[in-house]
Amino acid sequence: MSFESWRVLDGCVCVAPPCHHTRSDVRPIFLCAGSNVSVFIIGLPDLPGWGALALVFSNCIMPIKRQSTPRLVADQLKSEIEHGSRTTFLPGQQKLAKELGVSVPSVRGAIRFLVDEGYLEVPKKGQKIRIRSNQGDRISPASNLLLISPKRERLSELSFELLAGIEERWREHFPKSNVISVQRTERPMSHDELAQEISVNHVRGVVAFEALEGWSEQLNQIDLPVYRLAGAPIAPKLGESGWGVSIEQVISSILGHLHGLGHRRILTPILRPNLRESILGAYAASAVGVAFDGEEMVPLFPLDDEPRFRAFWERALTRFQPTAVVCIYTPVLFSLYGFCQVAGLRIPSHLSAVTIEHHQLVRFLMPRIAAPIVRGEGIRDVVNARLKLFDKWLKDGLQPQGYKLMGREFDWGESIRDIR
After folding, report:
1. pLDDT by residue (tens digit) across 117-135?
2. Parts of the chain with a pLDDT under 50
3. How many helices (H) and strands (E) does the chain have?
4. Does domain 69-137 bear CATH number 3.40.50.2300?
5. Interhelix angle 157-173/379-395, nearest 10 degrees
6. Which helix (H) or strand (E) holds 216?
7. Side-chain half-sphere exposure of 374, counting CA atoms within 13 A
8. Which helix (H) or strand (E) holds 13?
9. Relative to the CA of 1, which of 97, 191, 229, 357 has its CA 20 to 30 Å away?
10. 3-state SS of the chain: helix, strand, coil percent to 5?
């Protein structure tokens, strides 16, 4: 069957580098429950030991706003608790995930919903999760904000105005809530200290102001939505390649394979300047058309600069008219789907997206929170622009954002369909 005969909305190829895992460890990943999913394995013959798991699903448009898997799991568990079929304790997360046929991250998200709604006690490390089975035993839903920031006397006028706006908007969105302020010191809170602060104060979400050195691990481990106000990513940073082969070799192999499937116009947006030579070298050695020229970097999600984003992807999708996009790391994939959704740009139904990522560890789980570029001159212009992003986060239901590090149990399906 030729590539052109597929009715494709989009596709995702996870490239697996050589590693100590056996092939049986590479599990099928389904992008979208309920759609007509076709899974096939492709090989990359010019890189021995490499393989790729490709996923393509049929051209069925599914709504953006629909209940996520964690919400559905939470509703099912809530019903079972209310009807008395689950009492005292929940089983472990892995056992519960296997019982319900969902991923562990989905169960973790469902537990967070039920803690917020007062059906479960706050999980403690190494202990079972207790069910609040009686209505009178249930606490009121968590609604407070934990704000981690520098000491107030060290804040600039702009930062002070920004924090005041954050507190005001949180209280407007959650009328009976409080803002618990944690001022950063030389010694960051430990995971247990942070978990205790969240439990005692019935915290619903966390706002972390500026780059929080030493806080990355703790913020990754808490099971709450975290908003990074100034757009700081979480360490560690990625090098050009952690695979023992160069990015140029990987791209050349993928270009050759896509060319064999009938693709002649393959777009590879440039994520970082140090990848430019590798990308151009791979294209120069291939038979496919070069999609980009110039010095422009791909805009990341969400809206750093909407006019620049529109110009970038409109040029990419209309002028170059690619049939495939090779995304060097997942942020480019999020830029393509997330940004186009926000800006209302149409993604061609025939377009296939390929993302290259580490096999053992999925980095860049969620789109970053980025401080927007502001054209105005006054402090109020800057504050209003950043508060606009925070308002969107509140209205979207505090969707977890920022870089995360997750194991291979990460549910790709939930991630992709959430941004679609």
Report:
1. 778 877 777 677 888 755 5
2. 1-67, 136, 211, 231-245, 358-374, 402-420
3. 13, 13
4. no
5. 30
6. helix 216-221
7. 16
8. strand 10-16
9. 357
10. 40, 15, 45
